[in-house]
Structures are given as C-alpha cells and as structure tokens.
C-alpha cells in the first residue's frame, strides 16, 4: 500500500471513530475545527444561491440528480445505470454527467463502469457540469440528463433529486467532513424528492434497519417517497474475455476477493451468496490504483493458500486489465463479478420519475 493510501485509510478510520490512541486523540479536535469551517463554507454557498447572487443554470431538458449525503459507496452508480437504462429503453435521449474522481480527470472507476454498462448512452465527464449539460442538451440533443453525484451540486437546476442511503451506515458518526463522513447536515435531506435505501437484504436484521431508517426519514422529510433496493449477481466473466463461465463457476470453490471500492463488505456478501469459499481478501482503499507489487503480493498469497481463482468487481476491471497477464502466468484465473441493482416496487419508483416529462 502506497503512503497516500495509508494516510487516507488512517484519516478515514478517524472519520468513522474506528481509531483510538494518543495520536487519534490529538488529531480529532483539529478535524472538528475543520468541520466547522467546512460547515460555514457550504452554508455560505447555499445562502448566496438563495439570494441569487450566485445563479443556477437550467438546461433546456429535464435533469435528474442521483446523489448521497455521505462519503463512500452508497450505490449511486448502479442506480444511475438502472435509471439510464430504463429511460433509454423507453425512447428517451439520455446523457449522464459525471464530475470524475476529484473532478480533475477525464475518467474514473465510476465513469468507466458507466460507459461499459450503458453502451449507446453518452457519459460526459468534467468538473464544469454546466458546460457538459450544455453539450448534452445542445449537440447531443438529450431530453433528460442524469447528474451522477449531484445532491451537493448547486450550479445546475434539476427536476428531481434522488438520494441513496446505505442502510448499514446511512449517516456515519453524524459529523461533517472531515471529522465524519457527512457531506451536509442531515437536515439537508429535506431537499430530496426520493430516497433509495440500498443493500437491503432479506434477513430480519436488514429489514429492521430499513424500517428504522424509513421512520427517521419520514420525520426529516415526510413528502419524499422511500424505496428499498438490493444487489443481485448478474454475470461472472473472465477479465480476458471469451465465453462467460456462468455464476456457478465459483460455487464451492476456494477463491480470493480483490477490490478497491467504498464498501467491500457488500461485494463479499454477494460472492458468498453464490456459494463461494472465500479464503483470501485483498481489500484496498476506494479508487486505489493497483501496482505490480500489489499483484505480486496477491499472487504470493494465492499460491500459499492454494487458491487459483481471483474474483474482482466491474469497477476494478479497468485498473486490473493491464496486470491480468501477470496473474495468468501463474495459472490463476481472474474473474469479474457483475451485479445489478433491483428496486422494490420498481414500477412505482419509475412512476415517480415519468411525471417530470409532463411538466
């Protein structure tokens, strides 16, 4: 793990109250101070937009934002894929706008996943989403824009705000960045039109969490509709291409999991649902860029543990494809597990989306 990842992991553990000790006790007051600056800064920006000193741009088409209120993986990208696919199939001209990772790259893990999952749907990347919105509505003739990660984006007016919440950790420790993982105060959820609760399983504990969160959201924003969702494994493919082996290929097989995503526990749970025997886990920080040294450590671990199948995520695929030959040299198969988001009461959910086209 490179030094930047080590520092990020340490700070993130402080943000989640998972780190103790003298150093943590010294750093936390400073993080709380920066959280205060962050709060006043974001509130000042909102105030300027309310006074119309800063103005939002309304594109000549419909805009649907899919966002969240915390850092980390809450299922925004799979939901964007689901919505964009459905609208595209219904004949709408859809364009997806993404800021990209940290806003300074032409691509990111999420962008590559969007492009792969939505062939034929333009995905425009850039920090200036007013510019990309104009391009989408102008030269691309889009009649609906999906704003990926747009809940805190004030420069574009939208017709619908959808917020995803992970039922296992909806609000972190309840503190703002950088002392916690909240990007805005919880009261900001009053702006949302629809909530989608993600990673809701069939077990009793998961259902109880979803019901409790629904009740809390009802107090915060009684006018917003609340839907639950879950992930299902959709395909298992070899990273090098060719015929897909099918989801049963890892049933009762000893495997290693490799990923660099926000919530690796969800990935692990999905692999377990296919009957895999997870012998090794190589979990890296979200957006980690794999190096040759990383792959060598993974290979050494697999050889020592008698594992000849590695399973990774679709989001990790672009970062591993150039290293897959190194893995294959050791007779280790690298498989990619694809997932789909399923929304409970899906027709009712889309029934809340379609009326914006009549207004």
Key features?
359 residues; alpha/beta; Rossmann fold; 3 domains; eleven-stranded mixed beta sheet
How would you portray this structure in words?
The chain contains 11 helices and 11 strands. It has helices at 3-15, 22-50, 76-89, 109-117, 129-137, 204-220, 264-273, 292-305, 317-320, 324-328, 346-353; strands at residues 62-67, 94-98, 123-125, 144-148, 160-166, 194-198, 225-238, 254-259, 277-283, 309-313, 333-343. The chain has 3 domains: 3-50; 62-231 and 343-358, 3-Layer(aba) Sandwich (Rossmann fold); 234-338, Rossmann fold (3-Layer(aba) Sandwich), CATH 3.40.50.10700. α3 (76-89) runs parallel beside α4 (109-117). Strands 3-2-4-1-5-6-7-11-10-8-9 form an 11-stranded mixed beta sheet, sandwiched between helices.
Quick structural summary:
The protein has eleven helices and eleven strands.
Question: Secondary-structure map with pairings?
Answer:
Layout: H1 3-15, H2 22-50, E1 62-67, H3 76-89, E2 94-98, H4 109-117, E3 123-125, H5 129-137, E4 144-148, E5 160-166, E6 194-198, H6 204-220, E7 225-238, E8 254-259, H7 264-273, E9 277-283, H8 292-305, E10 309-313, H9 317-320, H10 324-328, E11 333-343, H11 346-353
Parallel strand pairs: 1-4, 1-5, 2-3, 2-4, 5-6, 6-7, 8-9, 8-10, 10-11
Antiparallel strand pairs: 7-11
Helix pairs in contact: 3-4
């Amino acid at each position: 793990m490179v030094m930047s990842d080590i520092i990020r992991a340490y700070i993130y553990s402080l943000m989640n109250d998972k780190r103790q000790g003298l150093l943590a006790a010294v750093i936390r007051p400073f993080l709380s101070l920066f959280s205060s600056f962050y709060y006043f800064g974001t509130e000042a920006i909102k105030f300027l937009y309310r006074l119309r000193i800063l103005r939002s741009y309304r594109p000549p088409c419909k805009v649907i934002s899919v966002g969240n209120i915390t850092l980390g993986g809450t299922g925004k990208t799979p939901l964007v894929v689901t919505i964009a696919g459905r609208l595209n199939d219904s004949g709408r001209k859809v364009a997806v706008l993404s800021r990209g990772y940290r806003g300074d790259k032409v691509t990111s893990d999420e962008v590559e996943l969007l492009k792969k999952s939505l062939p034929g749907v333009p995905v425009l990347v850039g920090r200036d989403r007013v510019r990309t919105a104009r391009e989408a509505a102008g030269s691309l003739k889009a009649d609906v824009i999906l704003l990926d990660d747009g809940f805190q984006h004030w420069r574009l007016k939208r017709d619908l705000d959808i917020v995803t919440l992970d039922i296992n950790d909806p609000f972190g420790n309840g503190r703002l960045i950088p002392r916690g993982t909240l990007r805005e105060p919880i009261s900001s959820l009053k702006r949302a039109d629809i909530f989608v609760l993600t990673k809701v399983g069939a077990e009793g504990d998961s259902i109880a969490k979803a019901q409790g969160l629904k009740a809390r959201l009802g107090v915060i924003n009684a006018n917003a509709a609340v839907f639950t969702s879950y992930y299902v494994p959709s395909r298992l493919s070899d990273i090098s291409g060719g015929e897909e082996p099918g989801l049963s290929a890892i049933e009762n097989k000893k495997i290693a999991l490799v990923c660099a995503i926000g919530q690796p526990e969800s990935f692990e749970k999905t692999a377990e649902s296919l009957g895999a025997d997870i012998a090794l886990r190589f979990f890296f920080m979200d957006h980690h860029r794999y190096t040759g040294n990383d792959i060598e450590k993974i290979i050494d671990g697999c050889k020592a543990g008698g594992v000849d199948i590695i399973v990774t995520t679709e989001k990790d695929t672009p970062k591993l494809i150039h290293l897959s030959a190194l893995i294959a040299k050791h007779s280790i198969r690298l498989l990619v597990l694809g997932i789909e988001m399923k929304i409970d009461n899906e027709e009712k959910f889309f029934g809340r989306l379609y009326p914006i086209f009549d207004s």
